[in-house]
## 1
Amino acid sequence: MQKLKMTPISRRAAMRLLGAGAAMATLPKLAFAAAGTVADRIAEITSGKPIGDLEIWLDMPDIAENGNQVKVSFEIDSPMTQENHVRQVFVFADGNPEPDVARFDFSPAMGACGATTRMRLSKTQSVYLLASLSDGSFAKAETTVKVTIGGCGG
Amino acid sequence: MAKVKARVKVPKTAELDEIIEIKTLISHPMHSGRAVDSDGNIVPRKIINSFTAKFNGKTVFSVDMKPSVSSNPFLVFPFKVAEAGTFDFIWVEDGGAEYTASKSIKIV
């Protein structure tokens, strides 16, 4: 694997990147996504509906030594039947350049709702989990992770 | 670029209606489009942006990934085995390249 040096980029370099990225559809959106938009994203997905208090087990370390590989694990107590299952789970991070981390699409065929993956954290921040259920309700969980060495390449 | 290699761990057999655990790992740098290489050039964004697990042709689980997912995306998820069959796992990279893996499971 190519060795990358994680140095902060200058404003000039950032502007150059923006210019180069203008041709790509995804980059402008990336550039405007700033910290603090997690609430906006949650509001967008729930479209103002109240968030219930379903039991969500979200497991992340309290302190991550390396922000490049932080394990995130969750489990939601759901019968996962056709009538009552977890449809989607969104993971957000409020201190990363882009709030969205991943979206998991579940199906009743899985029999249980849970997943584990690894994510990048650029600094100490909160990680949010939003679950969308088949009956149209939502549930949320939140945890804070202290990061000693950030990920995301500056 | 380093070769992209997908690895999947699925039990070979399961009891009927047993909930098994599937582990997947794909070697991929997940360039976020923000890191700088040793010459000071920005490494263009290139990530695995989606993962799909199919069982007997039907999508049972999928994940939409952003640059905040770590390099070498690793995923663990459950699956309830209601019949014998074959899993197909598909990873899609920015630019449309696809990487696949396949595993079958029997009922004991």
## 2
Amino acid sequence: MSAVIDFSELQLLSNRAFARWVPRVATNEWLREVSGESRFVWDLDAMQDGFLDPLYEIFDKHPERWRPILAAGLMQAADIDAASQDAVLAALELQFLTSIMLTRFRNGRTAAEAQSAGEIPFAVIATVSYTARQYAPTLVIRHAASLSPDAKTWLAYRFGRVTVQGAAGAAYNLFRWETKKTLMDESSYLAYLRYFVSSASFVLSADCAIAAAAPISTFAAQLQEASACAGIAYHLAAECETWRGDDGASLEPGHFLMGPNHAPDRRDAGPFDGSENIGRWLALAKAERDKAEQCTQGLPRSLQAVFLDFLESAVDAKLTTEREAASAK
Amino acid sequence: MRSEFSTDFVRDMDPVLGEHYTQWLPYCRESIAATIDELAHPDAFPRTLGIDNGHVDRDLLHSACVAPFRSYLRRSGKMLRPYLVCLCLEAYGRDPRTRPREVALAEIIHSSSLILDDVADDSTYRRGDLTAHQQVGMLVAGAVGSEWLNLGFEVVWRDRESLGSRITSRLIEELAWEHFVTGLGTTVDCIWPWQEKTNCLPGEYLQQVVHRSTSYTYRLPLKIGGLTADVPESEVAKLSAFGEQVGLGFQIVDDLLNVKPADEHWGKEVAEDIVQGKLTLQVILALERAEGARRARLLEILRSGTHVQSELQEAVGVLEETGALEECRRLATELRDGALKIADDLGMDEIYRRRLKALACYVLRRTR
């Protein structure tokens, strides 16, 4: 049981916030609230099949809600009622879900090729990802009633900026492989995660707390840096799961510095292959985790306690799981 | 079928619009070039992305993230959207030359949306040249479209001091909302062919058009112009309504031209919408009206993905026989008339109202 953050409660709060703004069932009332009066008539079935169902498929597969939990925990540490920030928390989770949505598709294919039989078409998934991603800043600037006008503007801008970074990173990484067919070195990969991979970051969680609680803004740079390092640590640890797969299985695009159309078998993956590399990856993750902890020095006690509790429950727990799994193998 | 894009469309415009447009076109190009350079020059781009210069291959970053976008700007687009921002600013007493970023913003968003449209439709050509995803792959092109679309927030943010808090906030709000609702409309657009729906309502098509395409065609540029000029919200709402009405008409005419181009300068595959099995208004109406073998044949062609022109023309024949094309022309005319009424009520000098009305008329009779 956590000493500072009630993770179960904040997970429930995050789920409720998401359901408030992204209902499982499409209704005219929801569409009216978020997109305005219908001028003609909405095809609700299309909204259900083409937006909400694919979104909930991925929402249910990833139940952790780390990002809204961290934001809500930091808000509570600053005496802000996190429940009043439901639109912000929903936006955070939307941003995360969309960042992992397109990973199953590989580049250099036509739309028709980019799907298996029976799967939702690439165009639909791409549209869900696009729409959900754009919904996030809309939620912030239109529906985050508890934020000040300037805070809403800044936070919506930050959501847009993360989308730019994530999109530019995807283009850069895919294009780099297509043209150079070389792997990134370790430091380039860490920089890539830091600047380009929004799913490997908790910075937006810090931003949401900063927007909601003016006093936190004094410590914005520290919190953002700690969140960036914690996100990279978590991401690196999570990548070890891929390493632990069967020897003959293909690596997924975006994992382990591989190219999108040429993801090789693990045994052919070059210098990063092998269990010793899992150890290396976990060491890198630990180093980032320690940097995150270091960044919390000087934060007010309540903020520091929340962040360290999060670090322990999210990042350390993941690192422990992966260490144990690597040892067992 | 590939064809070269031409810029002689100005001849289709009333001179009151065409001359003003021609006058502002060089400035539009200048503003766009300057804004893109400011954001995306190889020396500046990492900073735009918030990246420490030492950590990325700048040339590669530029080739991946900037070059495909620039290639769309080089294709002699009409630049109508930045022009509309200029028109609004001038109409409300502001000098467009003081707002180059907001002028450029409209074209940045438009070109980004074209890249994404081409990905969604898996189109081969745009303005007579290969689409971005044909050049750099589906995911790279999709990412580049999304990147540039969202760089719009950065453009506005850079002007926040001169715009002031309220206008900055309103511009960011409208960018976010327009991008989102465009996604909702696009959802309907791409779900219909996937589910092979055949019983869609004309109203459902028009609703998705209101969201999917009226934003980037005219509604958003007019809002950018009105908001940047700091006009009252009631005036912004009128500009938005005008843009939506014209945008609806634009899409219906676009659908008509897609199956029956007016000349050889169309620049896309003829009847590409039928190749993609799209349920446009004319197809929905034809499916409502056609019976038996003709209806079945139309559905068969729509679902076949054929590129064979004789088969595509057979489908176009069904659209004509059922009166669907004529009905669409009638509706486009109604929408234009609605736009003219809205324009009458705008709080700007008569000459600017005339220009906007000329735009509504041009959209209806355009040939490309």
